Amino acid sequence: MTLYELSLEIKARLKEKKFASALALFKSEKVNFEAAQIGSNGYLIADLMSCLRQNKQSQYAFALLDNYDIPLTEDMHENILNAYGWVLHALLKQQHDEEDEHAMPFDDEAESDEQNEWGGVEDPDRKKLTERMEVWLSIMHSEMEGFNYTVVVNVLKTFIKTEGKRQRANWALVDRVTALFEPAAFSTVCFKTKRIVRGAEKELELASDREIWYAARTKALENLERYVDCEALCTEALGAFERFHYGNDVWFARRIALSRLNLGDSAGARKGLEGLLKKKDEWFIRKEIAELDFGEGRLEQALMHCKKALAGHGDLEYKVGLLLLTARVLKALGNKDLSERHYRLMQLVRAEQGWGISTVILQEMEDLSPSVSAMKQTSTLLRELEAFWREGMAALAVGKVQGRVEKILHDNEQGVDGFLRTDAHAHIYFRETRQSPIAADLRVGSEFEFEILSQKEGKLKAVKLRPIRRIKS
After folding, report:
1. Is residue 146 predicted with pLDDT exceeding 80?
2. Residue 394 domain-assigned (yes or no)
3. Using CB atoms within 10 A of its CB, is residue 191 exposed (0-12), middle (13-18) or buried (19+)?
């Protein structure tokens, strides 16, 4: 069998999805050819890389290139460059799936010396993988036409998605790889997909490649504290699209406001955040306004925003900074007891998540009263403080009402939410965290006593839920 015939047979088996068979054939026949002959056949090498990827052996593709002395350069065969990109894409996804959500980044010094049959060592280290990716993107960024566009965009989007979820994202790398491209290089087409939402199939529109690029690059600029560039690019992004996805219009506007704040324009920041709050009442926006108020000595206003933010939608573990801010505001107002309770709740939540506390904050908490320090149950302290957070929110019903659970929307590790109904009202939204002592009681048909709050647009929300225990006769 000549090398040409071997190459044709490998391709045929690749098309037939006989990946293991193609790899076995190559291993049995490669001894008949010089390494230089095999390395100079770009079509064969590219097909072997594709077989490795499809056979769940992507980690050996780079060893294959090393074994046949094929460096990653602009002169690399175009088929190998394309196959290289799909291998990067597969490994980025695989690596993300294998990492624990809260794991620390890979140890740069931890290397495997386990040899494999392709003549190299396995390379699971993300740092090395992203270094390869950066070099590959620097070669491919000017070759964005035809089939190259698909692989480049898929590699870039997978990297952005996986890096953004890491505990210590490498924003400098995100900045460098996104800076290789102009926004005009990316499509503005928005594809649609079908997903199951609240038990029903729903068609959702996805963000375009260009919108994803703007979102990633502006976030990198914000995290790198390049506020002038961040504000300019966010302003450009807001004018680039007729509609936005995943709340990106809010994120762009928020980054503009925070950039102005960090550039010394607190008035401009406040104006931007308050305008944004009217458009979308999010707890983190209220927190940022509260920080401005606190810094300017407007303590009552700061407390009002803190309480509304704590009472609003959002899991408590994301609000530990807000709990700390609320504790400091209450301390400045002279309310020692409530301040201490917020410090303690923050401490308990951080402990549950396995997070430490800085020395500065521990010093602030040195004088906690013994009774507060002794509190061990997050759920008990949470229920006490929830009543304080909801003070001043207009109640629709006077006193308590009774009703039953009409529908459960979500019941998972984050908590339980759904709808209650009474004789007078239906679709009364409720939400309890997983730590709540009544979370296990929330089932369709179970009865509760509660109060009703009137929300925006006429929506109703149940608070202070208490199970009704019926005595069976």
Report:
1. no
2. no
3. exposed
Question: For residue 429, what are the β-bridge partners?
Answer: 419, 461
Shared domain check, 374 and 327: yes
- Angle, vertex CA 58, rays to CA 53 and CA 59, nearest 5: 170
- SS percent in the chain: helix, strand, coil, step 5: 55, 10, 30
Q: Residue 310 sits in a domain of what CATH number?
A: 1.25.40.10
pLDDT, the chain, mean: 87
pTM over 0.85: no
Tokens of 24: 């076995």
Residues 147 and 208 in one domain: no
Inform me whether the pLDDT recorded for 394 exceeds 80.
Answer: no
Interval 84-89 mean pLDDT: 97
Predicted confidence at residue 111, as pLDDT, reads 30
Domain match, 366 and 259 both: yes
- Count CB atoms within 10 A of the CB of residue 197: 11
Stretch 152-158: mean pLDDT, rounded?
Answer: 96
Residues 6+ apart with CB under 8 A from 168: 104, 105
Question: 21 and 120 in one domain?
Answer: yes
User: Is residue 233 domain-resident?
Assistant: yes
- Is the distance from CB of 417 to CB of 299 less than 8 angstroms? no
Q: Is 217 in the same domain as 244? A: yes
Q: Do 155 and 76 reside in the same domain of the chain? A: yes
Tokens of 65: 């290139």
Q: For residues 13 and 19, what is the distance between their CA atoms, to the nearest angstrom?
A: 7
Residues 445 and 408: their CA atoms lie apart, in Å, by 10
Per the structure, the complete domain to which residue 291 belongs is given by 192-389
What separation in angstroms does the CA of 282 have from each of 278, 291, 309, 368? 10, 15, 7, 31
Report strand pairing: 428-433 vs 447-454: unpaired
Residue 431 pLDDT more than 60? yes
Rounded to a whole number, what is the largest CA-CA distance in the chain?
90
Per residue in 251-281, pLDDT (tens digit) is 999 999 999 999 999 999 999 999 999 888 8
The DSSP symbol for 101 reads: T
Percent of the chain with pLDDT over 90: 66
Q: Which residues pair with 405 in a beta bridge?
A: 420
Quote the tokens at residue 378.
Answer: 């997050």
Q: Are residues 242 and 161 in the same domain?
A: no
Nearest-10 crossing angle of helices 299-311, 378-389 = 120
Check residues 368 and 324 and name the one with the higher pLDDT.
324
What are the angstrom distances between the C-alpha of 349 and each of 206, 279, 288, 319? Answer: 34, 30, 21, 9
3-class SS at 24?
A: helix
